[in-house]
Amino acid sequence: MLRIVVIRLIQAIPVLLLIAVMAFILMHLIPGDPAVVIAGADAGPAAVERIRHELGLDRPILEQLLSWLVNLGTGDFGRSLVLNQTVLSAVGERLPVTMSLAMLSLAITLPVGVFLGILAAYFRGSWIDAAVMTLALVGVSVPAFWIGILSVILFSVTLGWFPSAGYAPLLANGPGAWLSSLIQPAFILSLFQIGFLARMTRSGMLDVLDQDFIRTARAKGVSEWRTVGRHAFRNALVGVVTVAGIILSLLIGGSVVIEQVFALPGIGRLVVQAILARDYPLIQGTMLLFGFAFVVINICVDLIYLWVDPRVRYD
Amino acid sequence: MTRVPLLSVENLTVQFRGDSGWVTAIEDVSFEIGAGENLGIVGESGSGKSVSALSILRLHGRANTRYASGAIRFGGRDLLSMSERELRKVRGGDIAMIFQDPMSSLNPVLTIAEQIIEPLQLHQGLSSAAARRRAIELLEMVRIADAGRRIDEYPHRLSGGMRQRVMIAIAIACQPKLLIADEPTTALDVTIQGQILELLRDLQREIGMSVVLITHDLGVIAEFAQRVLVMYAGRVIEQAPVAALFNRPMHPYTDGLIDAVPKLDGDLHRLTTIPGSIPDLATVIPGCRFNPRCREAMDVCRRNAPALLPVGPDHLSRCPPRAAARGAA
After folding, report:
1. Partner-chain contact A216 B99, CB within 8 Å
2. Is the Cβ of A3 closer than 8 Å to some Cβ of chain B?
3. How far is B160 from chain A (nearest CA, A)?
4. Residue B36, Cα to own-chain centre: how many angstroms?
């Protein structure tokens, strides 16, 4: 178990290195200059040039890349060009917001998506199946920002149940305010994921429900509830875990849009601001962080496989 | 017949929903089985033998199956009109079942222990510890060596023969009165087949259960069954004690099945077959359903649907011309 984790982490190093280099190259390929942004619209060429020199942006690209990588090796992600703080502290401040949002959204998605998927599979071809699949299609197709705006109009403006924007930190404001500030964006973020998960669960369950061992379970006198929930779902779980991993990755990406809509000070908004300002170190740092998050999620998924499927365990 | 039947299937007709409406899979099937008796059901693929077997415990998919008529009496009650809840008490309790393919009939993600313990807890209310002890005993009964260790393994670690033994252990867990074995040896090596049949016979003696054995292999029938039901295209076409069936078959289809068994003392270079193949469920064949493949078919066979007639002691046949000929002789 521990051996597998260590091996996977070592394997992740070249992946992360590649992400780092790609992030660096991509940002420098995009037209635009952080020095111009920092100097402001009225600054003359001389001022811009001075800022470029101060930031080290006038050095050759390769040299900039190497020094960034060397600093990374010592744990130094550099300083943000515009925020006047280090990349690590900027990310560290906003990480709890995004993590809270992603976790809350996952906590809504998993039970609802799995339940709807099982329901649709069990009642395949019936109106229940049709209703769930239509709902899933709507969830997958409707853009989150649009649903988000509609939801704000209804629940925040008209009904006044939830705040329309902003984040209430858990420690400072208590769980009630924290939950109330996140529940709306988390639910909207979930809509897409629920549709996705319900579809994948349904097709996984359909495969399993036709298997001979389901008939064996029924022949033993096992109740329908237990046949579906234990004998069938345990087999469909491998697929569900895979999808849950993908969903968590998507949630982190999806937070970029939803954090804009609900003005949540999370990583997603940070990335958008950083890109607009061409804040190279900050963009590179957050991209690396996203890459690292994906790697960790994948390792977790692999570990859960071991637990869920005995056939993997022995290989 | 003074035998008090343990189970009697009466005029059972089962239909499945197809692409173009309901098709009849088995029609007017009747048979009974006494306590401690072995009944063999034989026929080609598509003859309706497995459909009949699965119907006893209503194991067909609920949405697409219709038990159009008939009754299945067991212990004074009709299994067809029972509620699901009542039927679940019978399944795995008084009537147990094993299936054709042991590779896919066990749940791959549950241990052997979990799968054997389940019916023990459901039907006998045993505690986990007691159920586990009993499960090890059961594995020993089906002659799995090192049962105490094997019980915690997953099915994929076991060979096909071992898995079928586990299936049998699950089936006999609650000492059923009736075991339905749906082609239990078809998917296994010949040597293993013999072992499994022997095991079934021994267990039957120990537990005193009846066995319905479904197979397409007349050799297995000759070895195992006391009475035989021959099915063709969803109907029972002959029913007889095993000796009478082999010595005095009263239906041309049964002749064909017997001739199709390769014999070591005959011509080894030629395998005898029945010409043609079993008709599709949806095909309507006027008269006797076997007449297109029958060497002895007469005009009457193409016109009138034959009835199942008595042709000897405990012997029924659905071939009136044969019955008339033999009766006259």
Report:
1. yes
2. no
3. 14
4. 15
The domain containing residue B236 runs over which residues?
Answer: 5-104+177-191+206-328
More confident call, A218 vs B283: A218
Write out chain A residues lying below 8 Å of B118, CB-based: 217, 220, 222
CATH number of B313's domain: 3.40.50.300
B101–chain A nearest CA distance, Å: 8
What is the pLDDT at residue B68?
Answer: 92
pLDDT band at residue B327 using 50, 70 and 90 as cut-offs: low
In this predicted structure, which of A222-231, A258-267, B256-265, B314-323 has the lowest mean pLDDT? B256-265
Please report, for residues A101, A102, A167, A233, B227, the alpha-carbon distance to residue A108 in angstroms, rounded to integers and kept in the order given: 11, 10, 19, 19, 60
A312–B contact, CB cutoff 8 A = no
DSSP E strands: which ranges in chain B?
A: 5-18, 21-34, 38-42, 65-74, 77-78, 95-98, 178-182, 210-215, 227-232, 235-241, 309-312, 315-317
Query: Is B138 a member of any domain?
Result: no
Other C-beta atoms lying within 10 Å of the C-beta of residue A103: 14
Candidates B109, B152, B164, B178: best to mutate against A (most CBs of A within 10 A) is B109
What's the distance, Cα to Cα, between the start and end of chain A in Å?
A: 13
Tokens standing for residue A106: 């996952």
B171 belongs to a structural domain: no
Which three-class secondary structure state does DSSP give residue B324? helix
Domains along chain A? Answer: 2-73 (no CATH), 87-314 (1.10.3720.10)
Let me know if residue B222 belongs to a domain.
yes
Query: Does the distance separating the beta carbons of A221 and B93 come in below 8 Å?
Result: yes
Q: Would you say residue B309 lies in a domain?
A: yes
And the tokens for B214?
């479904």
> pLDDT tens digit string along A141-155?
888 888 888 888 888
Cβ atoms of B15 and B55 closer than 8 Å = no
